[in-house]
Amino acid sequence: MERVKVYISNQQNAVKIPTGIRLLVRRCCSAVLLMEEFFDPAEVSVTFVDNEQIRELNAEYRNKDSATDVLSFPLGENGEYDVNMETGALLLGDIIISVPRAIEQAEMYGHSLRREIGFLTVHSMLHLLGYDHENEGIEAVRMREKEEQVLNKLGLKRDGSYVMDEE
């Protein structure tokens, strides 16, 4: 069995998913697991939505009534995961990506949509594996370093800064 089975669905009509994005998402998921030395068979679900759909999910699950770029729903805790009884794969969780928001952010940060979707996927995979950045500090720095490490290995180097120029 392959290391990770990535189930991808498109639940939005706002934007046509560009060619190669699904393969990119699969490569990002695999690269994170390889970097983290996670060698068990695993399954991940990735869903593309629009801004309204992600706003609704953000309101329902995080009590934040606003659109966001990505949501992660881990199915494991402290390295313990549910298991798909048919395949034996560990169920890591669900990643929800707003494609319109990814396009907006790619333009805002001055890099490609591939880079942005790659970043959001890697970021969420780290969340599924237990990383958190909500309290900032060293955990957020470590998570950002890991994100950049994976993206660089995939040829998705950062073209610019995540800090907006003040005018």
Salient structural properties:
167 residues; alpha/beta; Collagenase (Catalytic Domain); five-stranded mixed sheet; 5 helices; 5 strands; disordered C terminus
Structure explained in plain terms:
- The chain is built from 5 helices and 5 strands.
- The protein is of the alpha/beta class and 167 residues long.
- It is globular and about 35 Å long.
- It has a single domain (4-153), classed as Collagenase (Catalytic Domain) (3-Layer(aba) Sandwich).
- Residues 160-167 have low confidence and may be disordered.
- Helix 1 packs across helix 4 (113-128) and helix 1 crosses helix 5 (137-153).
- Strands 1, 2, 3, 4 and 5 form a 5-stranded mixed beta sheet that branches.
Q: What fold name stands as the CATH topology?
A: Collagenase (Catalytic Domain)
Number of helices: 5
Order of helices and strands: EHEHEEEHHH
Please state roughly what percent of the residues sit in beta strands, choosing from under 5%, 5-15%, 15-25%, 25-35%, 35-45% or over 45%.
15-25%
Global Rg: 16 Å
- Assigned CATH class: Alpha Beta
Assign a percent range to the helix content.
Answer: 40-55%
